[in-house]
Inverse folding.
């Protein structure tokens, strides 16, 4: 009896054990976590995710031996998702820089227009208060001049020198008939002769040419800065709409989502692996690095020319003084001027032929000061000049403190995309083929040339749109350099910066975050100004948004702690020597 029962019992336990093993096996290879990640990231319909791994799935990107939780439709959805996510990340970083440039472009332009408006009111008050006989007819010409200057500094193709000479041409007949010879009445047809011969007769001395030269230099730099900021915005617009190639999308999908096919939804890609993929995808973007650094150097030079020594402010605030001196010059040389006009334009019917030579001391209209007002240079309705001085210098310092942090933006964009949530420094990471302790592949540098040795993404040709942006930016840099003489002699143009190279191509070393282990350091980006408060925000910054990243390149500097190390060692040796002598 017992011999019959024993086989039954053994058979029952064997069947039970096999059943339990089967249940555990199915549970271990469930695709529940994959389905959850698929839903949370809104990649596609959940019905595409299988409940259990399949063994006969034909995948194009996420190929591996063994069961897989992915299907062809899931793989296609992963490529769409990774494209969307990567472009969103690129745009989030480029948007900060574009917002910085466009916000300060508006701030600079507002300051320019305010200075122009103040200078216009300053000059108009001079004509109304001091030279009232001609003010009504002269003011429209003053308004026309400053309207032209306003358009010019906004970027329109106008000549400030020609517009200023037009003002002098139109003022000459009014000064001649209202101030030099106030009794002769309207200029009539003679006014046309006076306007046509003003530069030959030269009634205002050197003052028109001096003013024109000052305005041309100061406003020319302001106009160039306006165009430069607009060019920077266009470059960032082109970067935001960068296209990703099929090879790039395959590499990104393999890096971000192929681990999900094996049920590994929490594993992160290795650092070196991520750098290779991102540098391959952004190879054409990295080609903008050299022209962009020269562009930032041009911004530094332009803002220095505009705001340094208060150049633009002094030029615009000096318009009133130059016009006043020009009119005084014509009055003081009235007899000589009248004689010259009579020879060139003929005698006026209302002007006695001898009157112009018998008045040795013509009346000169000088500014008057009332007891209830400030000097004529300060009008009660206009803020004092002192309140205007330094506005541009302050704006320049603020702008450069932010934009200099983005000088290496296109070179370090792959590192920014790989930091934070994308890559973690852990004991294990995803290499594209499996879970490893470190990435063994060669990590390449930036630029198209370096991608020839990229083991993860094949770059076959440059992006034509970005190549056009690069050429346009290089031409613009050359135009700015030609526009402002001596610009290329500055260190920021001759040398791109300490530790910088002309292009980002070629292999990189450990100092660039290119360790093959995948656990090396990457350039660090922190919020807020160095040594300042995180509350300091650029003009136009988003409320509650993150401050521009500070790019710190390893090897570029030494922290205060390392600077004090030799002193600490010296002090320690001195203490030991003192103790030894006491013994």
């Amino acid at each position: 009896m017992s011999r019959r029962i024993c086989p039954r019992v053994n058979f029952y336990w064997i069947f039970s054990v096999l059943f339990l093993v089967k249940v555990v096996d199915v549970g271990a290879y469930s695709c529940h976590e994959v389905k959850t990640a698929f839903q949370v990231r809104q990649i596609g319909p959940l019905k595409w995710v299988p409940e259990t791994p399949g063994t006969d799935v034909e995948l194009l990107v996420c190929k591996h031996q063994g069961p897989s939780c992915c299907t062809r439709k899931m793989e296609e959805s992963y490529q769409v998702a990774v494209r969307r996510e990567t472009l969103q990340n690129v745009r989030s970083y480029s948007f900060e820089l574009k917002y910085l440039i466009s916000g300060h472009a508006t701030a600079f332009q507002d300051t320019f227009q305010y200075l122009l408006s103040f200078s216009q009111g300053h000059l108009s008050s001079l004509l109304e208060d001091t030279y009232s006989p001609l003010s009504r007819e002269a003011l429209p010409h003053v308004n026309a001049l400053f309207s032209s200057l306003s358009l010019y500094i906004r970027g329109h193709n106008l000549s400030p020198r020609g517009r200023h000479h037009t003002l002098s041409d139109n003022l000459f007949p009014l000064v001649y008939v209202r101030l030099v010879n106030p009794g002769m009445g309207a200029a009539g047809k003679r006014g046309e002769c006076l306007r046509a011969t003003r530069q030959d007769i030269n009634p205002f001395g050197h003052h028109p040419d001096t003013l024109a030269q000052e305005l041309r230099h100061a406003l020319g730099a302001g106009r160039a800065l306006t165009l430069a900021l607009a060019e920077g915005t266009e470059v960032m617009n082109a970067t935001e709409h960068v296209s990703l190639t099929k090879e790039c999308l395959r590499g990104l999908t393999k890096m971000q989502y192929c681990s999900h096919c094996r049920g590994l939804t929490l594993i992160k890609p290795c650092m070196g692996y991520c750098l290779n993929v991102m540098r391959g995808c952004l190879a054409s973007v990295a080609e903008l690095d050299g022209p962009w650094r020269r562009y930032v150097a041009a911004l530094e030079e332009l803002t220095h020319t505009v705001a340094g020594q208060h150049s633009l402010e002094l030029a615009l605030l000096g318009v009133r003084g130059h016009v006043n001196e020009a009119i005084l010059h014509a009055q003081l040389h009235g007899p000589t001027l009248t004689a010259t006009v009579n020879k060139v334009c003929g005698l006026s019917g209302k002007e006695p032929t001898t009157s112009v030579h018998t008045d040795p001391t013509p009346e000169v209209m000088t500014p008057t000061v009332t007891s209830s007002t400030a000097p004529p240079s300060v009008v009660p309705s206009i803020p004092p000049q002192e309140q205007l001085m330094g506005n541009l210098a302050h704006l320049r310092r603020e702008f450069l403190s932010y934009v200099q942090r983005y000088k290496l933006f296109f070179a370090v964009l792959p590192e920014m995309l790989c930091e934070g949530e994308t890559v973690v420094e852990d004991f294990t990471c995803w290499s594209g083929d499996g879970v490893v302790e470190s990435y063994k592949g060669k990590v390449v540098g930036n630029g198209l040339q370096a991608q020839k040795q990229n083991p993860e993404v094949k770059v076959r040709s440059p992006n034509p749109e970005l190549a056009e942006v690069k050429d346009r930016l290089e031409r613009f840099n050359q135009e700015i350099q030609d526009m402002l003489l001596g610009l290329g002699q500055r260190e920021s143009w001759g040398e791109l910066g300490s530790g910088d190279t002309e292009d980002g191509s070629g292999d990189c070393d450990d100092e660039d975050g290119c360790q093959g282990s995948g656990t090396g350091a990457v350039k660090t980006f922190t919020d807020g100004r160095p040594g300042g408060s995180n509350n300091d925000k650029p003009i136009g910054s988003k409320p509650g948004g993150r401050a521009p990243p500070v790019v710190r390149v390893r090897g570029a500097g030494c922290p205060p702690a390392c600077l004090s190390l030799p002193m600490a060692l010296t002090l320690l040796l001195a203490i030991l020597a003192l103790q030894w002598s006491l013994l």
